[in-house]
Specification:
With about 55 residues, this protein is an alpha+beta fold. Helix content is about 25%, strand content about 15%. It contains two helices and four strands, in the order H-H-E-E-E-E. The strands form two sheets. The protein has a two-stranded antiparallel ribbon with strand order 1-2. A hairpin with a 6-residue loop joins strand 1 and strand 2. The protein is elongated and about 55 Å long.
């Protein structure tokens, strides 16, 4: 297993740890092909109830 040669400073470690939150703040929304409303990707549309061209709700 690889072991770091030098120790990282506290500030460098904290900078690395803080970056993950930027990636998850805003969910990527996509347009529903049926009703053109914004929805979460890979989820059924809450407005019209379609998912992958089929009515599921």
């Amino acid at each position: 297993m690889a072991v770091p040669k030098k120790r990282h400073s506290h500030s460098r470690t904290n900078k690395r740890r803080s970056e993950w939150r930027r990636k998850i703040d805003k969910p990527g929304l996509v347009e529903c092909p049926q009703c053109r409303e914004l929805k979460m990707p890979h989820r059924a549309c809450l407005n019209c109830g379609y998912y992958k061209g089929q009515k599921v709700m």
